[in-house]
Design goal:
The structure holds two protein chains of two kinds.
Chain A (H helix, E strand, L loop, with lengths): L1 H7 L4 H25 L8 H21 L5 H21 L2
Chain B lengths: L2 H20 L3 H12 L4 H26 L4 H22 L4 H23 L15
Helix pairs in contact in B: 1-2, 2-3
Classes of the chains: A mainly alpha, B mainly alpha.
Chain lengths: 94, 135
């Protein structure tokens, strides 16, 4: 979603990062029931999700407040670098 | 609460921090944490990350809106368009082999990152330094 916003809609990196986080709310809500109900056994571990959320809501609040401190260009390089790292890892050790 | 649960909270905090700053959703942050540290399958990692990202994105998103970081029109159309894509994607994902899914996801990320990196040189001048009011 971030590449879509930055490359196609030409939105600056800060607004793209924030906007993608807002836009993902309905997307995640729509997708979770499919992972839960589509197969015989639920493909969602809600207990694990609960503990992740306890940490992540605090992190998300601090991160969102800190975003304005980071200039546009370094922000874009960091986003691209993280995407490459995760992408390479996903390909090598799927 | 076990050490593993405490690890999930710590991992969640790091993922939340990344989520709030660089706007990544569950796929980039939670999925690697779940598959590497918690040894879940790719498909369970994706389903669990989607469940975890809902409250994370609500907290991060509301904070971003209050900070004036959100392009509301873009949020509406990417959100609505994304719902259709997510439903189709999730229906495909639960029936596709995990390793293949992970590799497709990885390749998409690298291609997108390469284009973003190339265009970063042409990005506008760095934004003005933050003021105390920004915080």
């Amino acid at each position: 979603m971030i590449p879509l916003l930055v490359l196609w809609a030409r939105i600056d990196q800060r607004h793209a990062n924030a906007t993608s986080l807002v836009a993902i709310i309905p997307i995640a809500i729509a997708a979770v029931p499919i992972y839960y109900f589509q197969k015989g056994t639920p493909q969602v571990d809600f207990r694990l999700a609960l503990f992740l959320v306890i940490g992540s809501v605090v992190g998300a609040y601090i991160g969102a407040r800190a975003l304005k401190l980071i200039p546009e260009r370094p922000l874009r390089y960091v986003v691209a670098a993280v995407m490459v790292l995760v992408g390479v890892r996903q390909i090598l050790i799927p | 609460m076990s050490w593993l649960d405490a690890g999930a909270i710590l991992g969640g905090f790091v993922a939340g921090l990344l989520s709030g700053t660089i706007g990544i959703g569950g796929g980039l942050a939670f999925v690697p944490i779940l598959t590497i540290a918690f040894r879940t399958t790719q498909i369970v990692a994706q389903g669990t990350s989607l469940a975890a990202i809902v409250p994370t994105a609500v907290v991060g998103g509301v904070t971003h809106i209050r900070q004036g970081n959100v392009d509301r029109d873009a949020a509406v159309w990417t959100g609505l368009g994304g719902v259709g894509g997510a439903v189709a994607g999730a229906l495909i994902a639960v029936h596709v082999a995990g390793p293949l899914l992970a590799r497709i996801f990885g390749a998409l990320l690298i291609v997108s990152a390469a284009v973003m990196w190339r265009r970063a040189g042409a990005a506008e001048a760095p934004s003005s330094p933050p003021t105390k009011a920004d915080l």
